[in-house]
Amino acid sequence: MKVRSYKLVASLIVLSLGASACSETKKAETTTPGTTMTTEAPSTVPSTGETTTTVVDAGAELNAWALTYTGGTAGAASGDSIKVGYANDENFFPENTIGIESARDYLNAELGGAAGKPIELVSCSVTNAEDGAKCGTQFANDPSIVAVITGTILVGNKELYDTLTGKKPVIVGNGVTSDDFTTPAGQAFTAGSPGVIAGMSGYIVSGLSPKPKKVAILAQNNPAGQAAVPLLIDPVLKKAGIESTSVFIDDSASASDVQAALKAAGADTADVLLPIITIQQCINVYDAVKSLAINPIVVTTGLCFGTPMTDHLKEAGEKGPVPEGWYFGGYGYSYFNPDLESGMQTYIAKVQQYGKPAPGAKTLEYTGFAGPEFANLMTFAKFVNTSKGAVDFATLDAAIRGFKGPMMLQVGPLNCGKQVILGLAFFVSVCAAEMGIQQLKDGQWVSIADGLNGKPIDVTKVES
Amino acid sequence: MKGSLTKYLQWFIGASAIVMVAWALIDSDSRAHFLTGSGLASGALIAAISLGVVITYRGSGVVNFANSAIAMYIAYVYAVLRKDGDLFLPPLPNPFALVEGIVHKLDSTSTLDLPDWPTRISFGPDMQFWPALLISVVFALLLGLVLHFFIFRPLRQAPPLAKVVASIGLCLYLPAVIVRRFGIQPFTVQSIPYFKVDRPVSLPLGVKINADELVLTILVIVLTVALYAVFQLTRFGLATRAASENEKGAVVLGFSPEFLAGANWIISTLITGVLGIFAATVLRTIDPNVIPALIIPALTAALVGSFTSFGWTTFAAMVLGMQFGLVKYFEAQHHWYPKSGTSIFPGMERVLPLVIIVLVLFLRGKSLPTRGAISSGRLPFSPTPPRWAIRYGGPALALATAICGLFIFGPTFRLALANTLIGIIICLSIVVITGYIGQISLAQMAFAGISAFLVAKLTTQHNVPFPIPIFIGAVVAMLVGVLVALPALRVRGVNLAIVTLAFAVAVDKAVFGNQSVNGGFVGAPVKVPQLISQPRDVQYKILGIIAGDGKQPNPMTAMFCLVVVVILCYAVANLRRSATGRRMLATRSNERAAAAAGVNVSGMKILAFAVSAFIAGVGGAVSAYRFGGVTPDKFNYVQSLTFFAFAYLGGIASVYGSISGGFLVAGGLVFTFLSEKLGVPSEFTLILGGLGLVVASVRNPEGIAGAVRQIGMNVRRKRGSREGPPEGVAAGAGPSPSTDTREVGAAS
Asked: What is its subcellular localisation (chain B) (predicted)?
């Protein structure tokens, strides 16, 4: 009897955990005397801090831009929905979801969806390698899903792409692993990490004055990080006669480890520090630079943007969203200097209008990968509008592979499947070859070399 | 002669180590990267974890693999209180949600909305330092009590395996709760008032250190001295030491080992929690990765201190923290540093703990001390597979699986079936090493990964045809397994678990992280025969019946996995039935008795490691073919821990247990069912797995297989009591200590 009751309880626990797993995402608030009990799901990315940008005009001009870009019709979408598969790692990169869901809601409410029909996202979270195959299989086998857009996935990418190759048109979102840039399954309408990193190398060589003599590189100790340094950075610096020293660190490296790594890389005597790392390590680099009392020029990527950095700087008594004076490589436009032509103003206005904070978060995180993901769904709608509602594999796949740009929020033309970056032809899914560099200087964002000042860096022209 | 040579070698290694440390301190360039503020701080972080490990071990005999996870959890409690004024709660089962779900299932138009469990208790917008610290300390105290009374007290007389398993369960569960609540993004930790975090302080020898790092370092040193004093000078400390050396003796002297264990758990959790809070403040941010990863160097430091000396433990932790900067300096600045192609050889700083562990084991000259417990419990019963199961049960199960995979399952469950089958292979490898011979190996996925990456090289670079790479990969994994077995000849139980875990981390970072192994941008693809290639929309006609639904995944992929599983299940079942299997069990029961009975104990251990690594290697190779490529994330050390957890949950001592374990793995049939039918997200795999492991280790050490067998026995017993005792029931009546003794006799 005792054993039986244990088993009954155990079964109920599993079943109720499952049920409560779903119910926890609902937000409700009950008050008990003295304390407040909030029933909400986890906070993954709390807020963007205080550095939000006010967009001047959230009205007709922005919608006009969006209608021109997508080729849609003003008004709400109606009828049967067009289903799009969406795979993302929700634990690490919830901002992708904020971006794509805002775009869906905006398209459906104001831009006539895709060819007049509402877009429905079929989401699948990839948090382990098995999930990659599972999501891919789910999408590939569902005839009602017409295309797949990926977010950012750290594991299971290969399994996901393998199942989708030749089965569904794929727009590769914000890739960070090798598979994202070498997969034949689809195309990424950005310069991706290879383009941005190679562009940053190019900027160090030809953009900085005086020309640096020594560069300290801090890279992530994973296959992509280890491959990036010898293929995308060292050859460029070597060709220009610049000495470089690289050190690799794990995801789990502590602040003290990062400080030791910077010292080992010679950051204390280097002219330029080039960290190609995640936001956690960016924060550690900021602290280490202060602790070591050194002042190199820091050139890094947009991965250093985000709430944790903003919160940390606030805690350290600084005001900006990112460390003052650092240079940031990205896709050529700025969340902090939004312009109309690239679609940035439209994006910021609409993500603020339609976006919902990540589950449990208090404010909306819309920097980082949210923008490009918003742009990807807008571009998908453009393809469907252009094809007058044809959503068969051949039509959409051809549209994706043949897209020449301009791409929302990405500078420069696209040349899908044919990009050769620093003589390397295996980045077959990278479409864009231009990137931008911006700097936070005296509390203001300055365009150094980007789409805003008309001087983006063309990665295909970087010498190695 | 052999003894004196060993002694000379020990002296040589010891002297070399002293010379190397002296050189690192004398050479100005090396000193500048070895004796640094960041190195000291890093060492203090490691020491903060390892001190808790030592206290727990001295007090209760538990080597707590979860100590860093506990530190992280309490640090989160503090950080969230400071920032948001909330005390977060772990996910709790909500029966209302079940009712809600059933109602919605029956009536899709229903708007029934019953209350949810709270996920946090809010005390206001944010909280000042002292109240947050106070609540965190109270939380740590309660956590210590819970851990003692509900988990480790019931396990006091359990074998080391059960304690290791419980702590690994916690080690998986606590970070999984954090991921569920806060995601993986870094969480800002507000600084402790009273000292400025970014003001460097100058120390002698040109060392500069941040104020908060210095405070943590001093705190660790003060605690080390205080703990030394407490354990040397106070009655409580002396009693704990007495109990840790001989519980029986302590009882005779009038001390209560239970009270001592409980008190030490509370002290350990408190110290770990407070140091965790300080450590998080030094780190400025906290996430579920950084602090838990410190467990490997922390265990290494504790091992250097023999799990008893606070001074040596802290010293070793400091050296381990400081070596990081020196290794990175060599990596970046010295041409002689090992290279892999054009890149540096990665992860050497993670190899060092393994080297230290192996050297310590060698220098000790004898195995590390184990506690003299009042009584030591038995390992899970390892039943002999009955003849009917081998003749009829196995084939029937295989046939049923094939029918499901070919004709019944849809794509999602076909995929889950393949995951389950690969999981069974890895669990089988754990059954051999842990279930049959009692050695705790936490490196099974390292063996699997070595084989998988080799398969990738063999198929793409050398065009070796299928299935030859599977055998080559497995044989190489087996050879590596034999190498890892060498320390097993000197250590056992929990010490071996530490060695193998350090090995898994070293292989993960230095081998799988190596570009020439993982292929960098190009990856490590595998050439897969069309017949078993997973991403194919195919149907087959088998005996006139259409197999498959023409959708991915190819049903033949799962059939390929099934064939391998059947072969291995029979091999492992027959191993258990053979004289070799009985010798293994004899070794597991009592090494001395086994040796006295003529069993070659060393040979048995090496053989078990070889067989186990071979099976894991087959699992890695099958996984490589199944996915058409190999990536390091599938074979990292966390995967080794996770598979160990599921193997134990399934039942670690039998083939049936490994089959049950395979059902439970991530993406396997059980979690796919939970996900598809009940909506449990995949991130609950580790929460339920970790929790299940803790519960299983306390309530049901024989896992699911043992529970099912027990039910069967109860049914037979009831029937027997009605019909009279049938012949042979006593012989199969379960886990009596005499079973193993009888087997020793048979083996000899």
From this structure: Cell membrane
